[in-house]
C-alpha cells in the first residue's frame, strides 16, 4: 500500500500547478478541491471559460445520470472547453460520470444519450449480481502506467456506480502515438476503471475519496501538467 504522507512529500517537490475543477452542477467539487489542494495544486472551482481554458489542468467530476450530466455540461459549455483543451494538448481528467461522458454514448433505463465521443464505447448497466458497486476495490493497471506509478498493485480505490464500460475497442496504428493505457476492475464482469490517453486521463473510481492511494494518483497527474 502507499506509505502515508507519500503524496504530500511528493507534492512539496512539485511546483504549484493551477487546476480548475469544472463546476457544471454535477460533481463533488468541494471534495475534489480539497484532494487537489492536499497534493499541492492551486485549485479553483469555476465554469468560467477563460479560466478553464488557461489552467494547467482541468478536472471534470460527475455524479448522477449520464443524460443529466451531458445536459449540464453542454449548458455550461464544458463540451467545448474539453474539446478545445484536448485539441491543444492541454490536460483534462474526468472522474466517475465525468469519465463516462467521454465515451460515445450512455444507455440508462433504455434511453440512449450521446456522449463526447473522445473514446468509442457504450456506458451501460453493470453486469453484476450486486448493483450499485459501492466500496473499495483493486484495479489491474497496465505496464508503464503513469497514473498508477508508485502505487502498490493491491492498492484499493473507492467506487460508487451502477454503470460502466465493459468493452474497449480503441486502437492506434500511428507509430508516433502510444496506444491508450486502459486499467480494469472487476465487479461481476470486468469493466474499464481508468484510461490514460495522451492529454486525456480519467477514472471510474473517486480518487478524491480513496485516501492515500487516491492522493498519490492525483499527485501523479499533477506531476504531468
UniProtKB/TrEMBL annotation:
InterPro entries: Class_I_gatase-like, GATASE, Imidazole-glycPsynth_HisH
Organism: Streptomyces thermoalcalitolerans
Protein known as: Imidazole glycerol phosphate synthase subunit HisH
UniProt keyword Calcium, yes or no: no
Cited PANTHER family: IMIDAZOLE GLYCEROL PHOSPHATE SYNTHASE SUBUNIT HISH (PTHR42701:SF1)
Biological role stated in the UniProt entry: IGPS catalyzes the conversion of PRFAR and glutamine to IGP, AICAR and glutamate. The HisH subunit catalyzes the hydrolysis of glutamine to glutamate and ammonia as part of the synthesis of IGP and AICAR. The resulting ammonia molecule is channeled to the active site of HisF.
Enzyme Commission number, as recorded: 4.3.2.10, 3.5.1.2
Keywords: Amino-acid biosynthesis, Cytoplasm, Glutamine amidotransferase, Histidine biosynthesis, Hydrolase, Lyase
Amino acid at each position: 500500500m502507499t506509505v502515508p504522507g507519500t503524496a504530500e512529500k511528493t507534492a512539496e517537490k512539485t511546483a504549484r500547478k493551477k487546476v480548475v475543477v469544472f463546476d457544471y452542477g454535477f460533481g463533488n467539487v468541494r471534495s475534489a478541491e480539497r484532494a487537489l489542494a492536499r497534493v499541492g495544486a492551486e485549485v479553483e472551482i469555476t465554469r468560467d471559460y477563460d479560466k478553464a481554458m488557461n489552467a494547467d489542468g482541468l478536472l471534470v467530476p460527475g455524479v448522477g445520470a449520464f443524460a443529466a450530466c451531458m445536459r449540464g455540461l453542454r449548458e455550461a459549455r464544458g463540451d467545448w472547453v474539453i474539446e478545445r483543451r484536448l485539441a491543444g494538448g492541454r490536460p483534462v481528467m474526468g472522474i466517475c460520470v465525468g469519465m463516462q461522458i467521454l465515451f460515445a454514448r450512455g444507455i440508462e433505463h433504455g434511453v440512449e444519450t450521446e456522449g463526447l465521443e473522445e473514446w468509442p464505447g457504450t456506458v451501460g448497466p453493470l453486469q453484476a449480481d450486486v448493483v450499485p458497486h459501492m466500496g473499495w476495490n483493486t484495479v489491474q493497471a497496465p505496464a508503464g502506467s503513469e497514473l498508477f506509478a508508485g502505487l502498490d498493485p493491491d492498492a484499493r480505490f473507492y467506487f460508487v456506480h451502477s454503470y460502466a464500460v465493459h468493452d474497449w475497442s480503441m486502437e492506434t496504428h500511428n507509430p508516433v502515438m502510444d496506444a491508450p493505457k486502459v486499467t480494469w476492475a472487476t465487479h461481476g464482469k470486468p469493466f474499464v476503471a481508468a484510461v490514460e490517453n495522451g492529454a486525456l486521463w480519467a477514472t471510474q473510481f473517486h480518487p478524491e475519496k480513496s485516501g492515500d492511494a487516491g492522493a498519490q494518483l492525483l499527485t501523479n497527474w499533477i506531476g504531468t501538467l
